[in-house]
Specification:
Elements: E1 3-12, H1 16-29, E2 33-39, E3 46-56, E4 69-72, E5 90-93, E6 103-106, H2 109-116, H3 122-133, H4 138-150, H5 154-177, E7 194-197, H6 198-208, E8 213-216, H7 223-231, H8 233-236, E9 239-242, H9 246-258, E10 263-267, H10 269-274, H11 276-285, E11 289-295, H12 312-317, E12 326-328, H13 333-350, E13 353-359, H14 360-364, E14 366-369, H15 431-442, H16 444-448, E15 456-459, E16 465-470, H17 474-482, E17 489-494, E18 496-498, H18 505-509, E19 513-518, H19 524-533, E20 539-542, H20 551-566
Parallel strand pairs: 1-4, 4-5, 5-6, 8-9, 8-10, 10-11, 11-13, 12-13, 16-17, 16-19, 19-20
Antiparallel strand pairs: 1-3, 2-3, 2-14, 7-14, 12-18, 15-17
Helix pairs in contact: 1-3, 2-3, 2-5, 3-5, 4-5, 6-7, 6-13, 17-20
């Protein structure tokens, strides 16, 4: 069974992201399943960054600690990954002065590039070298290089093709002179599948939900959604605004919804903190809002280019006063697409803010996935009424949802107020009206119970140990359980973390032991499950150093937990 873990390590500015992007496209096109993820320091030049690309004849979608081949673009970056290097790791590249027992092969990729004309071609030399291992020949990769680099200039494309050809020859020579080989055989025709990262899937889901306005202040790791929608803005008629700050961005979004648009704002934890007053404004004025909150470690600036699931409590409790909200947390490409689409539906129908929690690991990773439902790209409901002269924006109704009009569509006045207000939308301090309006808004919680996304269950149906996770930990736990076929373990994955349904309680009561796995220091989902459902959690497995869980970490931890449980 083919499962190769390639890791490229170098400094910022050496083209690692270009290597990752082009190789994953070519690998998938050649018939191999692939998964790619990156970790990088918060700097433009220097430091130590790495990208992991898995190549397989079966679906792989998770981060592994194992490194089969390490490509070093600079010697200084080796200490950054030394803990992941095993005796079986083959090290290639800038490794002339490494004191390591591994098989080391010094290849000066940068020198080869300089002979072509510039060290900027180093990444193409490296790509050609790797393509030789997979027997992906020039006739296959040259058209892609022509298209990719040719968008900038014909000369650049030609030079990079030459660089890849030289790298390919170096790879063939390397294989012929060293006793190293990887079993490399394409799996199946993958042309019917797609390769997307999390940001792209979220952006496409927003379009499927009818998004026609996005405002954001660039903030890692949320910026990918902004740039993706900007690149598609002309095709899908989307207004794109890079705001001066996050406060302006969300207020622009609220203004767009008020006028009849369907707006998205995308940010990270620090930016979302600035949006809290306007989140509350959405709650009071019952103006829909969709927010992509791409998590990274805090507090404050924290680790701005790393990953964490530390903002669940922020999303849950942000904003002053009491008002309903929905929090979604996709863990797969399909979920990112469908749940972002659903976020617009929920926000519009219930006139509430909906927060989509992603994180750096998910938005920056590439996954091979089934095609997204093209038909749903144009299907969405819009809950807007044509007003008449008697229209009241906050009309008291049995279900708490008032008919939502927009200015200019009908004869009515669409009056909204951030103060407590009458049915007509005018400011009031009438205590009886205040009570009725609070009750009206909170009634939506009852209706939202019918909209709760059912958690995904996988693993053994007759489990003794129940694993609970959310968001981006879906695939790492799924692969870990595949490596523990005899363990009596089931997993419940939440893609909607609020509100929760009491109908899932039997999953917990059937378990002898329940373990919650999440990337934060305090077990935020575990706390929410106890608070909302009063279920018993036996243990938590938490990671909060800024890196995602690896498959190996999960396997080791589950073996220990289950053995400890069996031993009493």
């Amino acid at each position: 069974m083919l499962d190769i873990s390639l890791v490229f390590c170098g400094s910022a500015g050496q083209g690692l992201q270009t290597i990752e992007y082009i190789l994953t496209q070519l690998i998938k096109k050649a018939g191999y399943y692939t998964f790619a993820t990156k970790e990088y320091m918060s700097r433009i030049h220097g430091g130590s960054n790495s990208s992991e690309i898995r190549i397989s004849d079966h679906i792989v979608s998770a981060f592994v600690s194992r490194i089969d081949m390490l490509i070093l673009l600079s010697t200084d970056t080796f200490p950054h990954l030394v803990d992941r290097v095993s005796p079986d790791t083959v090290i290639v590249g800038a490794c002339h002065d490494l004191s390591s027992p591994n098989k080391k092969y010094m290849i000066d990729f940068e020198k080869i590039a300089l002979e072509i004309g510039s060290k900027r071609y180093t990444n193409s030399v490296v790509m050609g070298f790797i393509l030789a291992f997979l027997k992906i020949e020039a006739s296959f990769y040259e058209p892609f290089f022509t298209q990719y680099y040719g968008a900038k200039s014909k000369e650049l494309a030609e030079k990079n093709i030459v660089a890849a050809q030289i790298g390919y020859k170096a790879g063939v020579a390397f294989l012929n002179t060293n006793s190293i080989s990887f079993y490399a055989k394409p799996s199946v025709d993958l042309n019917h599948k797609i390769l997307l990262n999390g940001s792209e899937a979220l952006a496409l889901g927003a379009i499927a939900g009818g998004c026609n306005f996005i405002a954001a202040y660039p903030m890692s790791p949320s910026t990918g959604v902004l740039t993706q929608l900007a690149s598609l803005s002309h095709e899908f008629d989307i207004v794109v605004e890079q705001a001066e700050d996050e406060i302006a961005a969300i207020n622009m979004g609220l203004g767009a919804w008020y006028a009849g648009g369907r707006a998205l704002v995308t940010t990270s934890g620090g930016g979302f903190a600035l949006m809290c007053e306007s989140l509350s404004l959405s709650g009071m004025t019952e103006t829909p809002m969709v927010i992509n909150l791409a998590q990274r470690p805090g507090p404050a600036t924290g680790l701005p280019t790393r990953t964490e699931q530390g903002d669940l409590n922020l999303a849950l409790f942000a904003g002053h006063g009491e008002f309903p909200r929905v929090i979604l947390a996709p863990g797969t490409i399909d979920q990112a697409f469908s749940l972002m689409q659903k976020a617009f539906y929920l926000a519009d129908k219930y006139q509430i803010p909906v927060i989509v929690l992603s994180d750096q690991f998910f938005v920056d990773s590439y996954f091979v996935s089934q095609p997204l439902d093209a038909l749903s790209m144009a299907i969405y409901d819009q809950h807007i009424v044509k007003t008449d002269a008697t229209y009241q924006r906050y009309q008291l109704t049995a279900d708490g949802i008032s008919p939502r009009g927009i200015p200019g569509f009908g004869d009515g006045l669409v009056c909204v107020d951030s103060d407590e207000h009458t049915e007509a939308g005018y400011i009031t301090e009438d205590f009886e009206v205040r009570t009725k309006m609070v009750q009206k808004r909170l009634k939506k919680f009852e209706l939202l119970q019918t909209e709760i996304a059912v958690p995904d269950f996988f693993g053994k149906k007759d489990y003794k140990t129940l694993i609970v996770c959310w968001g981006s930990n879906y695939f790492v736990i799924k692969e870990a359980l595949d490596l523990l076929p005899h363990a009596e373990i089931g997993c419940l994955h939440f893609s909607q973390v609020y509100p929760l349904s009491r109908e899932i309680i039997p999953y917990f009561t059937r378990a002898q032991k329940t373990i919650v796995i999440e990337n934060n220091a305090t077990g935020q989902l575990a706390q929410l499950l106890k608070q909302q459902l009063n279920v018993h959690i036996n243990a938590t497995l938490l990671k909060y150093n800024g890196l995602p869980f690896t498959v190996e970490e999960i396997v080791i931890a589950l073996k220990k937990y289950t053995q400890d449980h069996e031993n009493g």
